[in-house]
TrEMBL record:
Keywords tagged on the record: FAD, Flavoprotein, Oxidoreductase
Protein name, UniProt field: Glycerol-3-phosphate dehydrogenase
Signal sequence, start to end: none
Record-linked Pfam families: DAO (PF01266), DAO_C (PF16901)
FAD dependent oxidoreductase domain: residues covered: 22-384
Catalyzed reactions per annotation: a quinone + sn-glycerol 3-phosphate = dihydroxyacetone phosphate + a quinol
Keyword Flavoprotein tagged: yes
Assigned protein family: Belongs to the FAD-dependent glycerol-3-phosphate dehydrogenase family.
């Protein structure tokens, strides 16, 4: 049986076996899932556990951009900072790989930078041409100057008063939550045992060396031991918590900053062009992006306490609305906000940095005296390189014997086969789906979209909400084939409904709960707990 179809109980049974794994990876975000895929592809025996859901934390709360980092390039040039320069170079290289290996989940996005001062034109234009140059053959399109008229044509809501010109450049956009899930599923297909809702609660030592961990299944509270030759801590903002399992007095290696995003309806952004404001009043970068038929706006960058499910604060939402109002010819109010969420960025500590915006997004790898390998920092775009670096390091440190070298640079992810036009045509002609449904299913599932359509044809074609292209079949598919454990897993990550429109997610919740209860065998008590959890997450933070 393909591991992507293995029942959860069978996965847990295999994790309980006595024979040690080569690697135990703790953390199921971008980095952890990328490491699991890389290691499994090399032929290593791999287990990954995630305390909550895949990408439930930082990895599903990004700006949805696959980018080299325009701001980092500016820092590199201004401060002759090689770390920032390398981050941009690697990001642009990895951007091309991600778009190539997951074309259903990622695409090219044109962005406009409006310029309101004549002096800004040569500065911004030169910076973006350097961005193109660093991208090289993996570039997505050439940056160019836009006249005032063309800038307004591409982004009609731009404030026209004082606008001098614009610059057009290109980056990538993607579905971050589904990307993490797809990495996890591809890792399973490559032979890894990957499971969510299982926490590492203790690290086990023999003498001074780590030999495994005590794991806890979150639903039942059952604990069991997993032995491994090497343990990788890839828990994002929570890496210091795992490090303290190993060494209670370990000095922290990360600081966290919070970034919030808000979602407005489609009238605030054209469907095919984003907006990048290079510098707000306090030096931040602001994006207004089309995303899933809505306008996504972010982000902030403030020091933050590490906690699960951080909440977007009213003053942070007001900050974004205030800045949007400065650049739009349209009044934007709190009533226009359909959803908001907050994510934590794990930033490598630098005591010399004056604020979190200056902390390096590059990643670091640390190995403790007992053998805990921690990877920290980085960003979504460079997840694959981070994974390669971590596995290379693990092979050396733990004395592992992979069957082959890293092969992820040219490894298509699940769903990447087939041509978009052919798949969407099949969905419309064979299954009678509308254009918006066929487009949505392709972008979420790629060449596996017909599998979802077959479920829909069996009586599950109804939309979960009339205003969104998400259907009942996707809920059942998520439970059977995508490791969904909770209703909020479906509403916030298998589908982005809660991220787009919290009121719509509330309306859809009862049907999602009903479908999952039937698939997963929930009793009345479990059903009630799940309903309460959905409401809590929608109210307090996804």
């Amino acid at each position: 049986m393909p591991r992507t179809s293995m029942p959860r109980a069978d996965i847990l049974a295999e994790l309980r076996q006595d024979e040690p794994f080569d690697l135990l990876i703790i953390g199921g975000g971008a980095t952890g899932c990328g490491i699991a895929l890389d290691a499994a592809n090399r032929g290593l025996k791999v287990a990954l556990v995630e305390k909550q859901d895949f990408a439930e934390g930082t990895s599903s709360r990004s700006t949805k951009l696959v980018h080299g980092g325009v701001r980092y390039l500016e820092m590199a040039v201004k401060h002759l900072d090689r770390v920032q320069y390398n981050l941009v170079r690697d990001g642009l290289h990895e951007r091309g790989i991600l778009l190539n290996n997951a074309p259903h989940l990622a695409c090219r996005l044109p962005l406009v930078t409006p310029l309101y001062r004549w002096l800004d034109i040569p500065y911004i234009y030169a910076g973006l041409k350097l961005y193109d140059l660093l991208a090289g053959k993996r570039g997505l399109g050439r940056s160019r100057l836009l006249s005032r008229r063309e800038a307004l044509r591409r982004f009609p809501l731009l404030r026209a008063e004082g606008l001098k010109a614009g610059v057009l450049y290109y980056d990538g956009q993607f579905n971050d939550a589904r990307m993490a899930l797809t990495l996890a599923m591809t890792a399973r297909e490559q032979g890894a045992l990957v499971v969510n809702d299982v926490a590492a609660v203790e690290l086990l030592k023999e003498g001074r060396r780590l030999v495994g961990a005590t794991l806890e299944e979150q639903q039942t509270g059952e604990r069991f031991t997993l032995r491994a030759r090497g343990i990788i801590n890839a828990t994002g903002p929570f890496v210091d918590s795992i490090r303290r399992f190993d060494a209670p007095n370990a000095e922290p290696i990360l600081e966290a900053s919070s970034g919030i995003h808000i979602v407005l309806d489609e009238r605030f952004a054209p469907p095919d062009t984003g907006l990048m404001i290079p510098k707000t009043e306090d030096g931040r970068v602001l994006f207004v992006l089309p995303w899933e038929g809505h306008a996504l706006i972010g982000t902030t960058d403030e020091p933050a306490e590490v906690r699960e499910h951080p909440r977007p604060l009213e003053e942070e939402i007001a900050y974004l609305l205030r800045h949007v109002g400065r650049y739009f010819n349209l009044q934007v109010t709190l009533g226009d906000v359909k959803s908001a969420w907050c994510g934590l960025r794990p930033l490598v500590r630098d005591p010399k940095a004056s604020d979190t915006a200056r902390l390096a997004r590059d990643h670091v790898i640390e190995v403790s005296s007992s053998g805990l390998l921690t990877i920290a920092g980085g960003k979504w775009t460079t997840y694959r390189k981070m994974a390669q670096d971590a596995v290379d390091h693990a092979v050396r440190v733990f004395g592992l014997n992979p069957l082959r070298d890293c092969g992820t640079e040219q490894l298509p992810l699940i769903g990447a086969g087939g041509e978009r036009q052919v798949i969407e045509a099949e969905l419309r002609e064979e299954f009678g789906l509308s254009t918006d449904l066929s487009g949505h299913l392709y972008h979420a599932y790629g060449d596996r979209a017909p599998d979802v359509a077959r479920l829909a044809a069996g009586g599950l074609a109804a939309r979960l909400d009339a205003n969104h292209p998400f259907i009942e079949a996707e809920v059942v598919y998520a439970a059977r084939f995508e490791m969904a454990v909770h209703a909020v897993d479906v509403l916030a990550r298998r589908l982005p409904l809660a991220l787009l429109d919290r009121d719509a997610a509330r309306r859809a919740a009862s049907r999602v709960l009903e479908l999952l209860a039937g698939e997963l065998g929930w009793d009345a008590e479990r059903h009630s707990r799940e309903a309460a959890l959905v409401e809590e997450r929608l109210r307090e933070g996804l």
